[in-house]
User: Fold this.
Amino acid sequence: LTSSGNKSAPRRIYHLTLAYKGTPFLGWQRQPNGPTVQEHLETALARFWKRPVIVHGSGRTDTGVHAHAQTAHFTEEPRFPPATLQAGLNHSLPPEIRITACRLAPANFHARFSAIGKEYEYWIENAPVASPFHLDLRWHLPRPLNLPALTEALKLFEGTHDFASFTSNPGYERTNTIRTIHRAQIQKSGPLIRIRVTGNGFLFRMVRNLVGATVKVGHGRLTLEELSQILAARKRSGAPPSAPAHGLYLHRVYYDESTLQRRLNRA
Amino acid sequence: LTSSGNKSAPRRIYHLTLAYKGTPFLGWQRQPNGPTVQEHLETALARFWKRPVIVHGSGRTDTGVHAHAQTAHFTEEPRFPPATLQAGLNHSLPPEIRITACRLAPANFHARFSAIGKEYEYWIENAPVASPFHLDLRWHLPRPLNLPALTEALKLFEGTHDFASFTSNPGYERTNTIRTIHRAQIQKSGPLIRIRVTGNGFLFRMVRNLVGATVKVGHGRLTLEELSQILAARKRSGAPPSAPAHGLYLHRVYYDESTLQRRLNRA
Assistant:
């Protein structure tokens, strides 16, 4: 508690990038009811530093949601070179969680507050018979989706809007629900349809709610006009249901304006 | 037991194509120690015909081995149109087994004896960190593989050879171990290396044994000359170990010479 004689090095910020399959976890955030990604990570880190290490993620992901590139940071004495720590963590962690990058960050870095944008992908398998190889990894929709209709629906979301109709936060009326979606697009390869949404931030369940509504349009059960009205209504009741968790991937977190702009300028 | 009054229709042959993820099954063939694909399929079929139905596969697959397109047949009264049966089976079967095609076959069709060729794929993930999304679906090899060396190694197997060095059948010396490999090639896309082997037939564990040896060459631990000697030795002892089951896929079964030739003539 007082300045002791130990020669502890000044603390540094470790910045981690993680891929995880969300299926066996109750989401990112540590909680008492079962295993989470944060808990596994903090347990593994505590083995290295021989004391509790608190990790800060770029944000939460729900139960069953995956990450291609979640980011997190923690502050500790830099006892381990990043490459050594990465290998050690990957040895300790369950195989469903992988550290894909580890580096030391500048002193003002914060995984959540330094983020300037995020990108999600939602993976749909649009085929009469579901592949047995992607059971927890894609939302299987046997009925054909109209791709131009999906594209048009996603275009409605681009720009700055009040997305109150697309958050599942029950207290949303008392919060700021305005967000900017820089781009919302689809890519199709075979039966796989990937919806990619890039924005400055996302409300609770926003991507899954946007996808749920978009799919209604793609199935001809909702017109673009109706979707537009739902967006304008700014209330969750009356909006189509959420798409399931297991198709969603946190794809990328942006910390640098020029990286984000390069991404958006690519076709 | 005698010609009864029932007006049972003449039996027909149903020809099924199946995709399955091998992870939860003790292989294809029915056995007392645990669930197999054949057992699940026969159980589902018995519900339709209200009596035991025996299924014949194109061949066995080992525990953990996957199939993109296993084939099987059974002989029964054609009470159900193929499309109805396919939908009903997919409703009954676990999601790791999918019927991808169902048709009525000519009277002389046999899933095993009518086959004129087979194709396997072996999937390798060659990247420093394994993806958490393909844990039971690819063999993870962190050390870089030399692709030209892999290609050269596979070329050695093309043609008609005695593959005794590459079967795990303990009684192989008393059997015919000569097979023809029409083609053995690799395809790379990102970290995924797919080895595809097409032949007139395969010995027990042959593809996994060929891949185990090929990877040694790709890692520079075995020369082409040594591999050639192993093939010529015609004995299993001294050959490199088998590649693991979870990277292997039964990719296709050929019943028609012109279909096979078209495949082989494609680049």
